[in-house]
Amino acid sequence: MKQAVRKDLETTLGSFLVKDLTEPHFDPNWHFHPHYQLFLVEEGTGTRFIGDSIKPFGPGDLVMLGPDLPHLWRSDAPYFNPQSGLTTRGLVVYFTNDCLGTDFFLRPEMHRLRLLLNGSRRGLCWTGTTHDLAVQAMRGLVAEPPTFRRVLALLSLLDDLSHAPDAEPITSAGYTNPMKPADADESSASSQAYRRMQAVHTYVLTHFHEPIRLDTVADLAGLSPSSFCRYFKARTNKTFVDFVSEIRIGHACKLLTSSQLTITDVCYNSGFRTLSNFNRQFRDVTGQTPSQYLKSVQSV
């Protein structure tokens, strides 16, 4: 994986930061920061990396992240082409644990909110009724001027999310961020090593539909193949082979739901060389066969 940069967000006169993002593509850097984050994708598609989770994203993707949880919304390749005319849009809210005072979230009345904040350290997403209500609340929050009413709107949104029964954790239960704030120091040796890995991350996302040789990516990282495998597993909580497989399966899921390609065509367009291997790895990642997945999506 490429370096997870500790991101310093701009200061604001308000208690929290609200942004309406419109860019050719989302931030391509794997990063983390000391803020809680609510993020809604309004426009754009790609692959979402959060901790040790890899999932495709599209319009409506809504997540909440806890402090120092590494993440990246990597837009699909066409968004990086200046001639494509494509645009990404998103709504994002950043706030800290002490944004309303050092002890605010420690008060007895904040018990449910504390549970939500603790749960967000694994990342949380919503897809049901809660998702639809939260999307409307976030749009209203962005439109609200920075007054006391906006503070109330944020607390109301967090309260609704804290009582929602359909929150789904994103990372695995045992995941912890292996990067430390010091790793973001550009002069540190660890930071320089992480920067070498950026090339690996970009290479895989660009070439996942082709055969990928371990010695090629290890060379990009400046490591031997065996050292690279250990390094990668220690920092991503998964093997490099699993990482490539999940990216390919994520792409396959997008093709199955957004194109008229057959399952066989999806297999080869996603970088797999045999249908049997594709079916096996698809089931390992999603818990379903490609045909089962397609039927479940079409029934929604």
Automatic annotation (TrEMBL):
CDD domains: cupin_MtlR-like_N. It comes from the Bacteria. Keywords: DNA-binding, Transcription, Transcription regulation. One of its GO terms (molecular function) is sequence-specific DNA binding. SUPFAM superfamilies: Homeodomain-like (SSF46689), RmlC-like cupins (SSF51182). Residues 198-296 form the HTH araC/xylS-type domain. InterPro entries: AraC-bd (IPR003313), Homeodomain-like_sf (IPR009057), HTH_AraC (IPR018060), HTH_AraC-typ_CS (IPR018062), RmlC-like_jellyroll (IPR014710), RmlC_Cupin_sf (IPR011051). The keyword DNA-binding applies. SMART domains: HTH_ARAC. PANTHER family: ARAC-FAMILY TRANSCRIPTIONAL REGULATOR, TRANSCRIPTIONAL REGULATOR MTLR. This is AraC family transcriptional regulator.
